[in-house]
Design a protein that fits this description.
Mean pLDDT: 81
Distance between the termini: 46 Å
Radius of gyration: 30 Å
Number of helices: 6
Number of strands: 0
Strand content: under 5%
Structural class: mainly alpha
Shape: flat
Number of domains: 1
Order of helices and strands: HHHHHH
Helix content: over 70%
Largest sheet: none
Amino acid sequence: MKSLNYALVSSLCALVIGVLLVVWPDMAVNYLVITVGVLFLIPGLVGVFSYFSSVQKRRREGVRAIFPVVALGSALFGIWLVLMPAFFVTIFMYVLGVLLLLGGLSQLSEFVAARSYVRVPAGMYVFPVLVMAAGLVVLFNPFEAAMLPFMVLGVSFIVYSLIDIVRLVRFRRKTAVPDIQDVTPIEETKE
């Protein structure tokens, strides 16, 4: 019975996470950037604090201590990510949109160039055009495009949890002990 309760609780948690991701995908994007910021901030602070904690010891030993510029940069970048997550999401989406647009254009030009020596089916032009269209959508609506993967993830969580709840309710194993009357005795064979 404990495994049924655990599975049901985990399915309900997945359902709640899925609903939250579908309802507020913009918050999920921001929290992802904030998490990345914290992952830059913590090692940076550890590096800076370890420098300041050992600088006196190194001076007494006559060892020249070099200031950890990379650790300081990491900590400052982490603080910037934590304080301004929407700014970084927008910049990243613009870069992604430009890359998609250039990638689609590059594929189209390669197909046009390939036409001079080989037959290129018309269907091959569809995919580069779709990639370019995706790049344009991202460029003109970057924050909405950033939320789409989180919405897909949320829908996936919802579908997973609902299927798991149906599995738990409908296909659970019967663990009841059979009645004594239901058991037939084994007949001995006479030789």
